[in-house]
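Comment on both lines for my students:
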Amino acid sequence: MKRILFVVSILIYALNSNAQQFSISDSAVISLLTCSPGEEVYAKFGHTAIRIVDKKNAFDIVFNYGIFSFETSNFYYKFIKGETDYQLGIYDTANFLPEYAQRNSMVVEQVLNLTPSEKKELFTLLMKNYEPENRTYRYNFIFDNCATRPRDKLLSALHGYLKFRKTSDAKTFRQWIGTYVGNDTWLKFGIDLVFGIHADRLATENESMFLPEVLMTQFQTAEINSHDGKTAKFVSERKILVQKTDLNDSNDSWLFKPMTFSIFLLIVGTIITIWDTKRRYYYKPFDAALFGITGLAGLIVFYLMLFSVHPLVQANLNILWLNPLNLIVVALFWIRRLRVALFFYLILNAVILLAALFAFALSAQSINVAAFPIIILLLMRSVSWVALTKKKIYRRRR
């Protein structure tokens, strides 16, 4: 009953910011909860939350910055554009943990070595953040998410400063993400297509904590440096609240990997090109599909570069081979009187594709290896069409 009354009191406080300030006892225990990655796309990188147990006030609650709803109007459009709003929620721990047990995610608890005044200050910050006008925030996958928010609140409550142990495990944002989604997966292929040059910058130690498990590792070895010169371990105890069951890895067959598909597509395109060369005729349906799909992907990349607020999708060199203008080319393949325009476009396209290969070879931007066969195929089909039609074009222009 006392726990229920406390939760009700929290809700009343949240609705009335002028209400009497709540506090917690000096004996309250505050910890960081880290949930291991799950199978769903939104759970691939794990999760972080703050737990507060106050036996004196008989409550055990979790502050969770990862609340969102797929039912939000235009959710996917807003997510792609980087305008997704997340919320801070308060859960009873007894209701929070079963969700992660059900999806077979380990939950690790790190009890934090905070002073009574730091605990009360953190609780005040969290409650202030839970007020209706403050609880919603603009989610950013890298720089403002369910791991960085708890970290920042914890650091704000410290009366000293936190010293992290330096690590040699430096990675770019793209590489960090690859460790969680795999290197030859369709999810990684899609991410690599929309991520630009900025994703290849080395993430600082602070920036790498956007990943919950990295944050957990950094906290485990961190030390609190107080203003009086004393040092202490930040984590006083580590324990597992939810254990993960080892399951047999059901890795997808290599037949369904992006690289396999790209190589298969290149082989098919090469066979068609040889066949076209022998019969001196161009097979348009294949190229209409090839240029149409890459053009549509290019339109998405172009849109993200211009309008998305995601910081890692700007300045994307994939636009060199995922050309949105390829959508127009699909129509040009079937309109005979516009063959001259198509001829010169494909010459220009071949030059741009060579420039893309040159840029990627110089490591101006990392590219998914499965994209190379597709780039080669686009270059092959462009050059083949130009070679097969140049005599007709020159004869027509005369």
In short: The radius of gyration is 27 Å. The longest strand covers residues 59-67.
